[in-house]
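Q: Structure tokens for this one, please.
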Amino acid sequence: MPEVPAGAPADATSEAVRVYQHFREVFGGVPPSRRRRRADEPRGASAPFGAGREPRALGDTLDALTTELGWSSPLAQQELLSSWAEVAGEETARHSEPVGLEHGVLTVRCDSTAWATQLRMMRTTIAARIVDRYPQAGVESIRFQGPDAPSWKKGPRSVPGRGPRDTYG
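A: Here is the predicted structure, written as tokens:
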């Protein structure tokens, strides 16, 4: 059972607790203000141009932080969904929209069944582009679906099963 922070119920396994535990593993358990100073480290030993004080680019720092915290995959997935037009092409993006990415399956909803069929034939090309541009997104397969079919299940008196369609024909 994971360690629960002080003040939280013993059975709390919420996302907040998991994030807290992950931060604690990454950054250590004791805040820098409470850490003991080493005996060989004199007071005020932090020199502005000392070892380990080289400036780094903000982008490099953010990349390192997202990798360290395990955020690279979710960020790559969202970037893939937002840049669908670049991956699939402008014409294709006008007739299709990525709906979501779950368990390695990218689901794309198309305007018509004809576009869904066309994109199924282009599946390997689109998958190759995705793997080249967003390798950390974790896309294993792509599912293209046409528009939703009309539902006969409407109103408060809908019946289970096939219902009124039994008498057709």
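A few notes: The mean pLDDT is 77. The radius of gyration is 26 Å.
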